[in-house]
Amino acid sequence: MQIARPDINKTISIIGVPLDLGQSRRGVDMGPSALRYAGLDDRLRRLGHQVADNGNLNVPVRDTLPAEGGLAFLPAVVQACEAMYQAGYQAVEAGHLPLFLGGDHSIAVGTVGGVSHAEPTGLIWVDAHGDFNTPESSPSGNLHGMPLAALLGLGAPELVNLGRPGPKLTPADVVLIGVRDLDEAERGLLRESGVKVYTMREIDARGLADVATEALDRLSHLPRLHVSLDMDSLDPGAAPGVGTPVPGGLTYREAHLLMEIIADCACVGSMDVVEINPILDERNQTAKIALELIASLLGQSIL
Questions:
Q1: Is the residue at 303 inside a domain?
Q2: CA dihedral 289, 294, 300, 302 (to 10 degrees)
Q3: C-alpha to C-alpha distance for 53 and 223, rounded to whole angstroms
Q4: 235 is in which domain, residue-wise?
Q5: Rounded to whole angstroms, how far apart are CA atoms 246 and 179?
Q6: What backbone torsions phi and psi does residue 68 show, to the nearest 5 degrees?
Q7: CA-based Rg of the chain, rounded to a whole angstrom?
Q8: Domain membership flag for residue 274
Q9: Residue 19's CATH number
Q10: Is residue 6 part of a domain?
Q11: Which of 98, 106, 145, 224 could be stapled to 133 by a disulfide with Cβ–Cβ 3.0 to 4.6 Å?
C-alpha cells in the first residue's frame, strides 16, 4: 500500500445535514452546529485545506410530520436524502471533498449515493451497529438502522432507488468496523450479504492496525473511498453524546489510529460524521473528539 498524505490543495465542501427523523431521540439535528462550534473550519484551514462551508441543507422539520415517527417519516427522509445526493454529486463533480455533518445515519442513503454517482466508491462504515435492517426486519422501524441495507439494494424501494435505480454499492465495496450490537434478523441479513464485518471482538483479538490495513487492502480495487463515521462506534466513556450508546467500543486512540491509517492511503474522497447529540453530551466533548478524528483523516499527523 503506497503511503501518502491527502492533497491539501483540494477544497473541502462542508455540508450540514440537521436531520433527526431516523430515530426517536431528539437533539441529533444540532450535530452540525456542535461541530462548527468546536472549530471545524479553523482546524481544516490550519491543516492547509481550502474550505467552503455551504451551510445546512433544508430538511423537513420533525414537528410538522406525523407524531408516530419511524416509517411514517420515510417520505420526509427520502426528500432530504435526494437533496444530499445532489449535493454530494455536485461537490465531487467540482473536484471537492464533501464533508457531511449529520444528523442521524439515515443521511448516508443520500451522501454515499451522491458521491458514488460518477465512479465506483469504497465504503468504510465505522459504527457500533450494522444499520442493515429493512422495514420487515427492524424491531423499531427507525430509519437510521436501514441505510446500509438500502445502499446494497435491500429494503424500502424509495430508499433503494434514491438518486438512481438500484444498489449503489456491491458487497465487495463495503467494510464495517467496530460493530457490536445487531438485531437478530439484521444479523442474518448481514451474514447473507457478503459484506466484510470487523466486530469489536476481532479488533480486540487482532488489534486495530491489522484490521484497518486488511480493510484497506480489501477496498484497494476501488479508485476512491467514503468514510461514514458514526460517533457511537466509540466507547460511551469517550463519546457520551450519542443517542444509541453501546459499551465496549473503540477507544480514543483506536479511533485516531483508524483515521490515521485510512489517511495514509490518500484515497479518501468524501466523509460523513453522524449521530452527535449535544443534548446528551458533556461540554461538547463528543463533537470535539469528532473534530479531532476528522483532522486525523484529513491530514493531521504527529510529525
A1: no
A2: 30
A3: 26
A4: 11-297
A5: 10
A6: -70, -20
A7: 17
A8: yes
A9: 3.40.800.10
A10: no
A11: 145
46-103: pLDDT as tens digits: 999 999 999 999 999 999 999 889 999 999 999 999 999 999 999 999 999 999 999 9
What is the per-residue DSSP string for 185-205?
HHHHHHHHHT-EEEEHHHHHH
Quickly tell me which residue has 460517533 as its cell: 231
Q: Supply 256's cell numbers.
A: 485516531
Q: What are phi and psi of 51, to 5 degrees?
A: -130, 130
Task: For residue 258, count CB atoms less than 10 angstroms from its CB and return exposed for 0-12, middle for 13-18, buried for 19 or more.
Answer: buried
Among all residues, which ones are annotated catalytic?
Answer: 105, 127, 129, 131, 144, 230, 232, 275
Cis, bond preceding 69 (omega within 30 deg of 0): no
Supply the pTM of this predicted model. 0.96
Q: Which strand ranges, in their side-by-side order, compose the sheet holding 268-274?
A: 50-56, 11-17, 97-102, 268-274, 225-230, 122-126, 174-179, 196-199
Q: Which of the 8 DSSP states describes residue 129?
A: B
- pLDDT 10s digits, 132-146: 999 999 999 999 999
What is the domain count for the chain?
1
